[in-house]
Specification:
Order of helices and strands: HHHEHEHEEHEHEHHEH
Number of helices: 10
Shape: globular
Oligomer: single chain
CATH architecture of the largest domain: 3-Layer(aba) Sandwich
CATH class of the largest domain: Alpha Beta
Helix content: 40-55%
Radius of gyration: 20 Å
Length: 272
């Protein structure tokens, strides 16, 4: 599909971010301002105070969480060959990693995989865009944040979550593999959660691809020289990771480890 303005969905304008509060006390003074109102995760996870109204309502909040799980499961019920692609929301369109993520997603989509991302800009947009331009399934699992996250326009299926842990469960449940492009804390969170679940045998047969050898070289060296040397992990744990700089190699690895695309839809992998 040609890169013309007519073919590109319109993007939402970014909202200016107010000054960040420096202390918990400052943050609480700003709670009445719409931009700084508490997120659902923060309300759920903060410690109760002596006169905190939330300490009597946490049990009822379980119903909202349950509803978010039910909605997510219903919306994703048709996704059986999902591959989740993660990476920085700050990666520019002309960055080589954006280009590689777009190409990787396109190749995966063309051989029958459904692309799943966090739905935001940067690498997430690139991956959704690759699948979208291939005319295939492009899923965005968006998260409600007070700043930075805005849904990219290349989604054929768009979900919205209030809670990070619900969203992360959806990623794991409906993915056959993860591809991790260069990113920040959120990207690391998804990477190490997947590795932990594999290591503890909570999930099985789950390929994890690190894309961009130069970016990941330092982390892998530390894992080997420090974490492995201190016997906090085993050499088998490091074998869970496939490092590459090639979209074609990433796709070939996932096809090899997940199996070729069957004529009939494969049964969904279960979380133990």
């Amino acid at each position: 599909m040609a890169d013309t303005d007519a073919n590109k969905p319109k993007k939402k304008k970014d909202v200016a971010k107010p000054a960040e509060p420096k202390t918990v006390g400052e943050a609480r003074k700003l709670e009445d301002i719409p931009y700084w109102q508490l997120t659902d995760d923060e309300v759920l996870l903060r410690s109760p105070e002596p006169e905190d109204e939330y300490k009597t309502s946490d049990s009822w909040r379980v119903f909202r969480i349950m509803g978010e799980f039910v909605g997510g499961f219903d919306d994703m019920a048709t996704i059986t060959r999902g591959v989740s692609i993660f990476g920085s929301a700050r990666t520019a369109e002309d960055d080589e990693m954006y280009v590689a993520a777009r190409e990787t997603a396109r190749l995966l989509a063309e051989v029958g995989f459904e692309i799943i991302t966090g739905g935001g800009p940067g690498i997430m947009e690139a991956a959704n865009r690759g699948a979208y331009e291939a005319g295939k399934v492009s899923v965005g699992c968006n998260i409600e944040l007070p700043f930075e996250q805005s849904a990219n326009p290349y989604q054929t299926k768009s979900l919205s979550f209030k809670y990070f842990f619900v969203r992360k469960t959806i990623f794991i449940k409906y993915s056959n593999a993860y591809i991790i492009f260069p990113g920040g804390f959120g990207t690391m969170d998804e990477l190490f959660e997947a590795l932990t679940l594999i290591q503890t045998k909570k999930i099985r047969n789950f390929p994890v691809v690190l894309f961009g050898s130069q970016y990941w070289r330092g982390m892998l060296a530390w894992l080997t020289s420090t974490m492995l040397n201190e016997k906090n992990i085993s050499s088998e744990d490091l074998s869970l990771i496939h490092l590459t700089d090639s979209p074609g190699d990433a796709v070939d690895f996932i096809i090899k480890t997940c199996g070729g695309v069957p004529e009939k839809k494969a049964p969904r992998r279960r979380i133990r």
